[in-house]
Structures are given as C-alpha cells and as structure tokens.
Amino acid sequence: MVQIHGYVYVLALFLMIPAAAYAQDGSVQQKGIAIFVEKRCYTCHTVKAESAQIEAAKEAFAKSKGVELKESAEDKDESKGGDLSNIGADRTQEWLTKFLKNPKDYFKDTPDCKKLAKKKERKKFKGTDAEFQDLVAWIETLKSGNKQEAGFESCLKE
C-alpha cells in the first residue's frame, strides 16, 4: 500500500510540472502583451497570431486609464513595422535584446529605411529592465508562422 501511494505521488508530481510550465507561459504572454500595449508597440507592429488578446489588452489598458480608444492615422499604419507573429522563430533572444536596445544599427541604408530608423518609434526601448525582460520573453514565444501583409518589405539588414 505504501508503494502505491509513492507511485501516486510521483505521478502527480509529473503531471504538475507541465501544468506549472503552462501557467508560466500564460503569464509570459500576459506580461508581454501588456508591455506591448503600454509602450504602444502596436502603433507600428501587428501580432496577428495574438490579435484578440492584444485588442482585449488595449481596451483594458484604456479603461484603466479612463480614456477611450480612438483609431488614429498612426494606428491605421500598424504594418509599417511588420507583423511579429513569427519573430521568435526568426530571431534569437540575443538578437532581439540587441535590436530593442539599439534598433538604428539594424536598419538598411536606403533613404526610406534611414527615415524610419530616425523616427521616434524606432528609438531604443524605454521601460524598466523587468519590462524589457518580460517583453523579450514574450516575443521569443511568437512562432506562429509568417503572417506578413503581401508586399511588406522589411527595412532590417539581416
């Protein structure tokens, strides 16, 4: 009888490990999306794979600030930075970290890309170290396949 209880305990432990990992992934997603919204990353980027969650986060954030979400001309051009649905499959954590800390170095030298690199949205990440780590952790999980708009041309060198 004691052996059976031991096996049940071990089995329960093995079943809890994936559940804990799943719960952690959920918090990674929630934290990352919250930062994506708070830092207004959506003004240039889409994440079509998680668009419903991002829209809900935008509405919740606006409500928490007592403001109404308005579609601006800036919001209509979300795709200028491209869709990030597959960025975690395309880029490493090291690359993402370096890019977000100093994005200008990663842009092509064409006139249009240089212009984009100089814009306010292209400046390095502004937030706490914890927010930065949470954002990168979430971006790394984005591996949902290419969802770029037809004809999208990236300004990134690599």
What is the secondary structure topology, with strand pairs?
Blueprint: H1 2-38, E1 45-46, H2 51-65, H3 73-76, E2 82-83, H4 87-90, H5 93-101, H6 111-118, H7 129-141
Parallel strand pairs: 1-2
Helix pairs in contact: 1-2, 1-7
Structure, described:
The protein has 7 helices and 2 strands; from the N terminus they run αβααβαααα. It has 158 residues and is mainly alpha-helical. It has one domain (2-68, 75-141). A two-stranded parallel ribbon has the order 1-2. Mean pLDDT is 80; it is low at 6-25.
Proportion of strand residues:
under 5%
Strand order of the largest sheet: 1-2
Q: What oligomeric assembly is this protein in?
A: single chain
Radius of gyration: 19 Å
**Tally of separate domains:** 1
**Mean pLDDT score:** 80
DSSP strand tally: 2
Task: Give the helix proportion (percent range).
Answer: 55-70%
Q: How is the main sheet built?
A: 2 strands, parallel
Structural class: mainly alpha
End-to-end CA span: 61 Å
Number of separate helices: 7
- SSE pattern: HEHHEHHHH
- Contiguous low-pLDDT stretches (5 residues minimum) are 6-25
Identify the overall geometry.
Answer: globular
